[in-house]
Amino acid sequence: MLLALSTCSLFVTAYIGYRSGKSHLSQTVSNQLTSLRASKADQIESYFEDIRYQTQTLSENLMVVEAMQEFKTAYNQLQQSRTATDTPTDLEDTLKEYYRKEFLTKLAETSDGKPVLESYLPETSAARYLQYYYIATNPNSAGEKHLLDDPEDKSEYSSIHTRYHPIFRNIVEKFGYQDMLLIDPKTGEIVYSVFKETDFGTNLTTGPYSDSNLAFALADLRKAKGKDYVQIFDFDSYRPSFGAPVAFIAAPIYDGSQFIGVLAFQLPVNQINNVMTGYRKWKSNGLGDTGEIYLVGEDYLMRSVSRFLIQDPTKYSKDLREHGVKEQILKRIEQFGTSILQQPVKTEAVKAALAGQEGTQIMDDYRGIEVLSSYAPLNIDGLEWVIVSQMDLTEAYAPVYAFQKRVLVSAALLILLITLVAMGLAHLFVQPVRALIASARKVTDGQVDAVVNINSEDEFGELAESFNQMVGSLRTQTKLVEQKNRENEKLLTSVFPDSVAKRLKRGETNIAESVSNVTVLFCDIAGFGKLSRSMDTHEVIAILNDIVSMFDQATAKYGIEKIKTIGDNYMAVCGLSILHIDHQKRAVDFGLEILALTHRFSHERGFDLDLEIGIHSGDIVAGIVGREKVVYDVWGDTVNVANKLMFYCPTGAILVSQNVYNSLHDIYDFEQAEDITPNGKNQQKAWLLKTAQELVGSTV
Question: Which of 84, 181, 453, 634 could make an S-S bridge to 193, C-beta 3.0–4.6 Å?
């Protein structure tokens, strides 16, 4: 009864604590999303306000006013005074050829149906003339037509263009706009643009782009008929940009009281995306692995790019396809590389925000995934946009789930503790506990086969049975421990020489010994550093593991012991644990073997890898270094000389010391190399193994 009451009390206390903690954590997560959403909303609203001020200021700038007047006049001159002698004979053919091969071909990839040439060619002679010189015969490639200042046609228009274009191009580049255009409000003709797309020179009233959002901008400013009027025009598919989503901001240009022109900027999509994605630093901005903040227009289409399209386009398309998004939409997203004006987001959050509401709630997002979403309308004059911040529910509520797990585990542990205490107190008053104690002592003495024989069917019998099960489990665990000890011993002997491993098992910590007459080999993988800079980390590690594994397999053949690898360096010793009279020859043969293996590996993989090998024999000191993480290593002058020989060794060769040469010169052919100077030592002779050079030649 006491145990039951304690358990119930514990459950009630845990439940109350869980409900309180869950509510607090949930509110914290919601507040975080709301705070991030509010911060981004303030940033994007301020950004558009800055653009509005920039456009208004530039439209009132005296230089822009003068440029508008001059470009209009020059454009009208081209329209009125062109004669057959002034017009290039190949103008029509060249312009048509450009439209067919350069413009219409790309436009067809993102359009419904096949574009008709005659529907897009500029109508007026002035427009054709300008597009001929500034677009069709412009030596710069598409996207770089704005780099041309003067086509050298000696026209008045080009003279004006040469003066103003570098300035306007600099404005566009400095402020990050996609394009800058000057429009004659009376005729509707675009008399100037920075980027020279196919809208340059065309008529926005009667021309091929009269139904574009830029044409709507012109019509709106014509109706406004007032100064200090700046208007933003929402994203729409813009055919001069091959159907990509484009937004404009426009302002009237007045010369005194006369409405002489329109200044329009094509808004920078990348700048908007940078604001919304925090320059793609979602984690550092508090959005974790699945959080994002995006914009949606009144047509329920995105106005900023989706995080998931940027991070993993394949998974993004798969999720949308599983959610029932049409293949035509997925194809356009893939073609344009953006979700702007393509991704439908008709979620409850967007509906509520477009209705003027703001809040935070759990719902399915545009991928069909359950998310915690915070939403609100934006206050941007001329745009009916909303902002949504969201995070996958599994990540957003991860702290809640972790807290729930901790509560359950803690409750379970406390219940177990109360049970054990209750059982222990009860056993103090009964006789069978003596048998239990006796058996427990046997187990303590190492007799893991001891059992308690109590045949009663009451609580004591159950306790005896539990004890016997515990002993059985202990017996199993003991066997597992013994097995692990054997595995650890095997691992120890594989990492260290047998003599060192035995001393480590005896508990020795200071292990060091001098070893005479051994040969040390140092090897550097030449070209690996250059190769690693052209690959990602996983590929580099995989290639290095393949090479080192080949070397390790060759060590057994020649009785060589690998000591360590340092980056792309490989160090081995012969005659350390096992005495070999011919340790010098074994080391040279091993060097030739790994040289051949490397050449074959490099040839098969198409890499440019080779080896630089240094070999020296003499006395060394070997021992264990470190307290917590021990390493078996060797050191001494012999090691230093071998390392220096590797450093001076030519690529694809083996460089040996005088000691090795004296022992093997009657077996191998050597030629004398330049002397080496080990650190702080006298010069020593070095010898180049000719057999290694012949091996390189035969491989090549």
Answer: 181
